[in-house]
Description:
Elements: E1 2-7, H1 13-17, H2 20-27, E2 32-37, E3 50-51, E4 61-62, H3 64-75, E5 83-94, H4 97-103, E6 108-113, E7 118-119, H5 121-127, E8 130-133, H6 142-154, E9 193-194, E10 197-198, H7 208-226, H8 228-231
Parallel strand pairs: 1-2, 1-6, 4-7, 5-6, 5-8
Antiparallel strand pairs: 3-4, 9-10
The structure holds adenine.
Adenine binds next to strand 5 and helix 6.
Amino acid sequence: MRIDILTIFPGLFEPVLGTSIPGRARDAGLVSYHTTDIRDFAKDKHHKVDDRPFGGGPGMVMMCQPIFDAVAMVEKHDPDAPVTRILLTPQGIPLTQLIVEDLATKERLLIIAGHYEGIDERVIEELKPIELSIGDYILSGGETAALVLIDAVVRLIPGVLGHDQSADEDSFSPTGAGGERLLDCPHYTRPREWMGREVPDVLIGGDHGKIAAWRDIQRLRRTEQRRPDLLHDESAAPPVR
Ligand code: ADE
């Protein structure tokens, strides 16, 4: 997978994408990351990419032209590969594991990290990106949201996680008997007793059937207690293709 990121803060990405699983995925040749500075496409000598909003109001709005030109340049690389355009914005569809799974199957992602008060609506209409939000709160910019998205997507690319790290039993994976996306079960490691707290006996016994059954019950119980909405979430079902 090739991932392009259009941003006014390209330096934010390498420290994160070069580390841990995103870094290993790149080292293994399973993904490549390419940042493009939107400022490089500004037409004036001050590299201005934003301006005051028509109609007044606080903040600045990112202008159409630098973003549009940056997208056009980036998409010239390997023009035959289909590109999935994504804009990170608090007004987007809430990101879920189901969406992440779908994006992990794509050949190329082009991610636009918005900034300031937003982006001129006309460039969004023209580029028609998938608009995604990582939650109902406001970040200073789309960069950290883009990093969240990339981390979540890259770990699902086949071969990125080793067998012992499989994502199949993670929270929000369809582990329920009816394909419900449940929270993960509790986990324990050595020592067997810590500050008077014991590891559940079933995990010590070595009976894999019993351990799997116990984990299934724990996943369901946790989800009922903490996220009952997940048990009735129609949108979490696999899309009909
Ligand atoms: N930009 C600012 N806040 C955001 C959010 N919650 N999700 C995605 N992009 C954002």
